[in-house]
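Handout, tutorial session.
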Amino acid sequence: MAHPVEDDATPLYNARIAEWNKEAHIDLGCRIHLARVGDTLVLSIVGAAERNGYQFLAEKAIEIINSERKKALIVDLSLCERLSSSPLGMLGMMIMAFENRGGQVFVITGDPQIRKSLKILGLAERCRIIDDVAGIEIA
């Protein structure tokens, strides 16, 4: 029986994600986690992301996005209480970088304020905003 061959980029890609997660502790009242699930990159933000300092995480996330092509980016904000401008800027940079590489972007949120912020920033046109994971169909 043949075993799947893992390309050389995959271990480095996984290491970059692990490093990103170690550095993602900016807000005490917020948990941010990045994960790879097959051909999909998943970012989840739980709690209130209100502090500054997300620029560094955005730059690291773009390095991850550019290092290996994935089909979709899922941003799970279903348990996010608040997003200030700095984490919104990080999301914007990630969404645009992923879209520029030809991937699909889904944002999960039912919060009207977060939806409004995404629309004001012009990000609503670059991604599909859905209420829950049932709305995700990756082509």
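The second record follows below. Compare its token runs with those of the first.
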Amino acid sequence: MRKPILAAFLLCLSALVATGQDLCSVYMIQGPDGPQVASRPPQEQLDALKALSREARITAVKALANQGAIIDVPVDVWGWDCNKTMKQRQIYGYKWVPNALMANIVVAPGLNVPSLPSYKPKPPVGAILVPPKGGWKKK
């Protein structure tokens, strides 16, 4: 009974992700005065991280983050596809996610768990902003 539902969900998800929209060409973070473009390492540097062992990659990413670079852990450390990751974040209702130096989100958006902090849609300073549907508007 669940297999058709799962298959339909995966088909819909594939269609959403396959839109070809680049959600990662610009990373935005929450600054003290509102959204701002994130300070990201050059793409060549991020690509070079993929060739490192897990331990070496974690060490390199920590050093970059401590120098002020905004690191998206699932994408930059774990190697997840950026567009698919951002699309999943949109689907699940995330408005922001923590950068590498911030505490993890304990409870997903829309859920309430007694004695655990709920997800707040207002992003803290330094948080990676999830692009709205349609992506960031060009100015």
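Points raised in discussion: The radius of gyration is 16 Å.
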